[in-house]
Amino acid sequence: MNKPCTNRLIILLVIGFCCISLVLPFSLAMLWSLVDPGHPWSYPHILPPVLSLQRWVDIWTTTSLPQALLHSYLLAPCVALCSVLLALPTAYAFGRLEFPGKQAAQLISLLPLIVPSFVVALFFSSLLNVLGIYSRFLGILIGQTVLFIPYAIRILSVSFSLIRQEIIDATRDLGGGPITVFKTAYLPVLKPGLLASIIMIFILSIEEFAIAFVVGSPDFVTVPTILYSYLGYNFIRSNAAVVSLILVVPNIFLMLLMERFLKARNTAVITGKG
After folding, report:
1. Is residue 49 part of a domain?
2. Mean pLDDT, the chain cut into blocks of 10 residues (274 residues total)
């Protein structure tokens, strides 16, 4: 098989995989969200007999979805900011310094990713009660921050490691102070990593369920808790499709924004030139 045929085959396989894993589920979710409540979609109908936006209207007006959206989009930026700020010193040490036990410390920093999220949620729920912290918002903020710090550490460690020492030395030799060194040598390289960390943790916080459910219920409702209520004992596929689209679609645009920014900054990251 010649090279052009091989390339076409690979492209077709990639397109097929994307259609199966992305386009098909998204299309089905959209169809289920448009099923009219008075005309169920069932066998032998290939497509919904009647399409309408009634389920969207019903969920928005009869459930706590508006409040859940407000809670989720207030919580996520706070979690992202706290995670990135707390991760910066550790990321600097992993990316710029050499010290005994560095590899072990890097491994330990990833442990929150190994522990099941419900175990972390139950631990934090008990810990918050012992400490006398009864604010649902603050409890979820602390739990999600600890859960997502490893992502920020990993991304920012790579960003710190890409900073060129000769640029730092040259800036200092020219009389630049700490602020000038940071603006000239560090910031241009760190920008993509900072933005990627913030967007990634923002998305993870929006989609996180275990801590939000265990610590926040029943007073502090987020979008995933509403979604899982439709996926539980009283399974309502159309309602779940509506909430899942509300949850996923903004995150898709955020991921595209992160990818576009990283591509635009690719040269700066590799060369250290801002």
Report:
1. no
2. 65 69 76 82 78 85 88 93 94 88 86 81 84 86 91 90 84 80 84 88 90 85 84 70 84 76 50 38
Task: List 51's β-bridge partners, or say none.
Answer: 35
**Residue 133: exposure state from Cβ atoms within 10 A (0-12, 13-18, ≥19):** middle
Question: What CATH number is attached to the domain comprising 153?
Answer: 1.10.3720.10
Question: Is 142 inside any structural domain?
Answer: yes
Report if pTM > 0.90. no
205 burial level (CB within 10 Å; 0-12, 13-18, 19+): buried
Residue 255 · residue 199 · CB < 8 Å: yes
Whether omega for the bond prior to residue 188 falls within 30 degrees of 0, making it cis, is no
Return mean pLDDT, the chain.
81
In a domain, 7, yes or no: no
Nearest by Cα to 76 from 178, 174, 204: 204
Q: What is the largest CA-CA distance in the chain?
A: 77
